[in-house]
Amino acid sequence: MEQRNWAEARERLGDDINTATAARMYDYYLGGVHNFAADREAAEKVIGSMPLVPFIARANREFLGRAVRFLIDQGVRQFLDIGSGMPTQGNVHQAAQEADPDASVVYVDIDPVAVMHSRGLLEGNPRAAAVLGDLRRPNDLLDLLDGPEVREVVDLDKPVALLLVAVLHFVPDDDVAYGAVTRLRDRLVPGSWLVVSHGAAEGFVAGEAKAVQGVYQQRTATPGGLRTRDQVLEFFGDGFEIVEPGLVWAPQWRPQADRDPGVFDTEPERSGMHAVVGRKLH
Fold first, then answer.
1. Mean pLDDT over all residues of the chain?
2. Does the structure show a pLDDT above 50 at 15?
3. What are phi and psi of 33, to 5 degrees?
4. For residue 17, which of 96, 90, 113 has the smallest C-alpha distance?
């Protein structure tokens, strides 16, 4: 089964060295080393159209770290990170297990190279795993998540934090995106959490956004699309309580009081990312 999934993923993504992927471009924005020439070339083209992109990526990564630490404080010990990307600095398992070594994390990504590198990083860590999965195929994904490989690490019959951070804008078809999140959301038990960050339709200059979307459409197998704040909140549906400070720009979500001044302090909307966390009540 897994061999077939890897073959299908490689076919969708094309040649792993000569075709850019969103995961490896993101790694490049963050200053990582798990990327190829095709990824760097595409990423530089994006940066040429929108120079703030590396800062946006870092602001989003910092939001992820704050959200994980917040959830640890709320008693969460299971994390499911879908669209996890390449293993770069500030991974979920690092933040979670630093706070509690017993915290468990499963990473899911569509990019076989990202999963391969993640598995190498996680070798010898029994409370973390990386698997190949496609958010756009929620039924197959749920079968995977309920399978023995994942259940040894994260059990969906117990509360879990579902992280959909900077991934849903790579599923621009609304029917597919909302349908997938609904299937995953419905599988979560009460007391679980949903964490979302998403490219904001209100946050980008139209010309810049079109240019960036064009690069992803031409260079990768995962073209992007922006959504408004109301559209992002729709991913939570009924039965979720949105925690303070609600849906805000990523740098505004529970910033650390002792942090250094940031690029987006005076104009947080330039971060271009909505961020929101909610808890499932029923």
1. 89
2. no
3. -115, 0
4. 113
**pLDDT per residue over 55-65, tens digit each?**
999 999 999 99
Residue 254 backbone class (left: φ over 0; alpha: ψ -120 to 50; beta: rest): left
The DSSP code for 170 is G
pTM above 0.70, yes or no: yes
Cβ atoms of residues 208 and 49 within 8 Å:
yes
Q: How far, in Å, are 65, 141, 143, 149, 155 from residue 146 at the CA level? A: 26, 9, 5, 8, 8
Q: Token digits for 92? A: 């979920």
- CA–CA dist 24, 151 (Å, integer): 27
- Taking CA atoms, 173 is separated from 176, 190, 222, 259, in Å, by 5, 28, 11, 37
How far apart are alpha carbons 222 and 166 in whole angstroms?
12
Give the type of residue at 181: V
Q: What is the distance between the alpha carbons of residues 147 and 142, in angstroms, rounded to a whole number? A: 8
Cβ–Cβ < 8 Å for 193, 281: no
CA distance 176 to 171: 7
Nearest in space to 168 (alpha carbons), one of 112, 236, 248, 104: 236
- Identify whether the C-beta of residue 58 lies closer than 8 Å to the C-beta of residue 83: no
Distance between CA atoms of 275 and 59, rounded to whole angstroms? 11
Where are the alpha helices (H) located in 17-52, listed in sequence order? Answer: 22-29, 37-49
Identify each DSSP E strand in the chain by its residue range: 78-82, 104-109, 128-132, 161-165, 193-199, 240-242, 248-249, 273-280
Strand partners, 131: 108
In the chain, % of residues over pLDDT 70: 89
For residues 268 and 179, what is the distance between their CA atoms, to the nearest angstrom? 30
